[in-house]
Specification:
The chain is mainly α and about 60 residues long. The chain has three helices and no strands. This is DUF2783 domain-containing protein.
Length: about 60
């Protein structure tokens, strides 16, 4: 795992970019976009176990 830490400002930047991209994809393609993004990020992260942990964490308190 990387030693890099994303700051609150960085998280806000990512959130804004993600919201804009979801809007650009539109309702009919938003789910496909999010799956593609998740798979690209999983590949970049390079740790299937960590990705599974993040999926479980994301499901909490929906």
């Amino acid at each position: 795992m990387s030693d890099k830490v994303l700051t609150i400002d960085g998280l806000e930047t990512v959130y804004d970019a993600l919201a804009t991209a979801i809007d650009q994809a539109g309702p009919e393609k938003a789910q496909l976009f999010l799956v593609k993004l998740a798979l690209l990020n999983a590949k970049a992260l390079g740790d299937a176990s960590l990705v599974q942990q993040q999926i479980a964490t994301a499901l909490l308190d929906l």
